[in-house]
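Anyone opening a protein record will find just a pair of labelled lines. A complete record is shown below as an example.
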Amino acid sequence: MCRIVFTLVLTFLLNACASDLFIKGDQEASIRELLRTMDTCHKNLLGDDYKKLEGKLFFESNHKLTSGDLSNQNMPSLEEASVISKLVTNKTFCEIRYLNWSQEHAPKASQLTMVYSSLNVEIFKRLSTGTYSYGQAVSDMRSAFIEYWKHLKLLEINVTENNKEATKQFLRNYLLQSGSQNSTDSNGNLIVRCGSRGVNFVTNSCN
């Protein structure tokens, strides 16, 4: 019986640990997968037109943004603006994939991830309408990502703390219940031992 109870408690504790924000890998590995998902989605959505934005709005995964990338004052041409607008009008195409990523990697961050996605769509919209230059768009996209990363970390800390408190509460309840059960078992044994003589529960003895 004790082994079964211990196994149940251990299972609960392991599940509590596994229910932190990222359920498949850590934050860094999960975000790398999200960025790959985003890039793949943009490529699938735009097809060959994706190449028209390479080095301006989209960069290779190992590319480190330079001051030139962030200060690029060039505005999209009419053709480029038309390509970028596809990212806005077909935003659901990629949003579904971001939701799938959230369900697989960080279900509790789904809302935060969709906010991050919406920010990028707004940046694409401003770029396609001539409100932003490429440099402004890239700079804002970088800032949005940094804020997303920070809020994920804060959410992860919050989830971990909540799980710790839930674990403590479970153990408190379990110990209280165990103490009550032990008392009930003791009384039951006393009743059996005393039989027809009756039980004095005050002195824990037979009459």
In short: Residues 2-162 form one domain. DSSP finds seven helices and two strands in the chain.
